Amino acid sequence: MTTEKKSLREELGSLLGGHLVSVQERLGEMTVVVRATEMLSVLTLMRDAEELRFAQMVDLCGMDYSEYGDGAWEGRRFAVVYHLLSVVHNRRLRVRIFAEEDDFPVLASVADIWPGANWFEREAFDLFGLIFTGHPDLRRILTDYGFVGNPFRKDFPLSGHVEMRYDPEQQRVVYQPVTVEPREVTPRILREQTYGCN
Amino acid sequence: MPEIKNYTMNFGPQHPSAHGVLRLVLELDGEVIVRADPHIGLLHRGTEKLAEHKTFLQALPYMDRLDYVSMLCNEHAYVQAIEKLAGIEVPLRAQYIRVMFDEITRILNHLMWLGAHGLDIGAMTVFLYCFREREDLMDAYEAVSGARMHAAYYRPGGVYRDLPETMPQYEASKIHNAAAVKRMNENRQGSLLDFLEDFTRRFPTYVDEYETLLTDNRIWKQRTVGIGVLTPERALALGITGPMLRGSGVEWDLRKKQPYAAYDKVDFDIPVGVNGDSYDRYLVRVEEMRQSNRIIKQCISWLRQNPGPVITTNHKFAPPGRESMKQNMEELIHHFKLFTEGMHVPEGEAYSVVEHPKGEFGIYLVSDGANKPYRLKIRAPGFANLSSLDEMVRGHMIADVVTIIGTQDIVFGEIDR
């Protein structure tokens, strides 16, 4: 397994050397970071090159790093993480691409490279507000019809902004501001890495 | 006569063959589907967001509620992600227990699928047969975890407790008298392993029964052969995994190709289809049930011979025993910290994956070192499978939509998350 992984690193280096911002291997998983401007050509090569042959895009995950490490994050706020799988070579690869702008995050759509990305991109658009240019049908997918906001962004409260109830006077369902109090049973605690080690 | 144009039809969300809450907007030309637009999200609960606000242990029971017909497989991917990030060693016995329950779950899932799929396209008896066998397996769930469905049995570092030595018994009631109850309790006199061994002996006959009803049935073949054909290249490009991919002839099973837990120590075969149609996918799933039965048998004989711990002794992640907690100050502190603050998973990211009954179920866990996940992405196999629905139903009749929804084995708990 280790020799195979090493050769994946070498092949990535020889094929895409200058185009990779970083290559990291941890826990037996290879992660590469690619610039948003070059993403389409790099990802197409990853799918087609004989040594890589990542024919399947298994997962596409939107990320909001704004509160990572309780504010310790220095870098772009939004990213998309692709998990690629090569059935031929039995390998996985994680590709992370940061959106250039934090206020209006835009990335290119990979739906032409892997048609299965269509719904995954709709999901990231819905939940994180990431825009995918060139997507054939960028609509909301998981949230309600007429939903406002991007619920998985870190600044969106867990209880949301509106709640729905039946109004007996108007005899229909109405939206109103939420009445539930936000509560936290166990607070989020981030300790220094050496805590409890002495 | 005026010329009839395409018209749209709404299918679901309240439709018995929509398998939950699928709303389909179909564009029809006569009875032929021109376009299908699935509207999903009616069961969206925001599991991933909720998990960001819960400690690692509190988020575990949410996994049961994703794909609510294959509960323990979901949990397996989740605990595996934590174990990978934290570098926890899982005792071998716990790994075998997990493999055994993953396979029980696979049979549960495929029985549910077979029953519902049969019912959708007109075979009532299969449904009743399948639910009869599901009952035994759910009793096994209940014996080990106390819950018939949402078990919450796996823990980071192992499983909650060892397999029980006794099985719960039926009691006489208005419906069953003492003699009937005695007969029902006959195979429950020993341990859980005895009960499961008895099941694995009976199960192949049951699968033969389903096959007698369906495999050579002319109506069944007319409804499934040549319906929803997927080529292997297209299936890969669409992100399809699991029995759907194997039905198209791609020999890809994570239990063999990227083995996890104790799958490299058990012997089984991967069935693959040839034509990639609904009938092949049916054959693949039926054979998978037989193979699962084979794996369970091997796990039972191993578990009988090898007693041992079932959860890690790393008390930063797994609680200490009750006795030692009450005698030892350090263990008391561990216990207190674990259940008030929760475990701290080291900073990093991990993608853990299991061969779920529906396909590749992945958990992408990002931790920044806190006691809660920073981001938990659930890769649901049904989500990718359903996204191919539009392509699969084009050119088919309305009645075939029901077949194709059935053959995709969709469950909305995981698709909507």
Care to describe what's here?
- The complex is a heterodimer of chains A (198) and B (417).
- Chain A is α/β, with parallel strands linked by helices and 198 residues long.
- Chain A has helices spanning 2-16, 39-48, 117-128; strands spanning 20-26, 29-34, 56-64, 78-86, 91-98, 106-108, 131-133, 162-167, 172-177.
- Chain A has a 5-stranded mixed beta sheet. In chain A, strands 6-7 form a two-stranded parallel ribbon.
- The longest helix of chain A has 15 residues, at 2-16.
- Chain B is mainly alpha-helical.
- Chain B has helices spanning 47-52, 60-64, 71-86, 92-120, 124-145, 178-184, 192-214, 218-224, 232-237, 243-247, 254-257, 278-305, 322-327, 329-340, 381-387, 389-393, 398-408, 412-416, and strands at 7-11, 23-29, 32-39, 154-155, 158-159, 348-356, 359-367, 375-379.
- Chain B has a 3-stranded antiparallel beta sheet with strand order 1-2-3. In chain B, strands 6-7-8 form a 3-stranded antiparallel beta sheet. A two-stranded antiparallel ribbon of chain B has the order 4-5.
- In chain B, a hairpin with a 2-residue loop joins strand 6 (348-356) and strand 7.
- The radius of gyration of chain B is 23 Å and the shape is globular.
- The termini of chain B are far apart.
- At the A-B interface, strand 3, strand 4 and helix 3 of A face helix 1, helix 9, strand 6, strand 7 and strand 8 of B.
In brief:
Chain A is α/β, with parallel strands linked by helices. Chain A is 19% helix and 29% strand.
What secondary-structure arrangement, pairings included, does this model have?
The complex is a heterodimer of chains A (198) and B (417).
Chain A: H1 2-16, E1 20-26, E2 29-34, H2 39-48, E3 56-64, E4 78-86, E5 91-98, E6 106-108, H3 117-128, E7 131-133, E8 162-167, E9 172-177
Parallel strand pairs in A: 2-5, 6-7
Antiparallel strand pairs in A: 1-2, 3-4, 4-5, 8-9
Chain B: E1 7-11, E2 23-29, E3 32-39, H1 47-52, H2 60-64, H3 71-86, H4 92-120, H5 124-145, E4 154-155, E5 158-159, H6 178-184, H7 192-214, H8 218-224, H9 232-237, H10 243-247, H11 254-257, H12 278-305, H13 322-327, H14 329-340, E6 348-356, E7 359-367, E8 375-379, H15 381-387, H16 389-393, H17 398-408, H18 412-416
Antiparallel strand pairs in B: 1-2, 2-3, 4-5, 6-7, 7-8
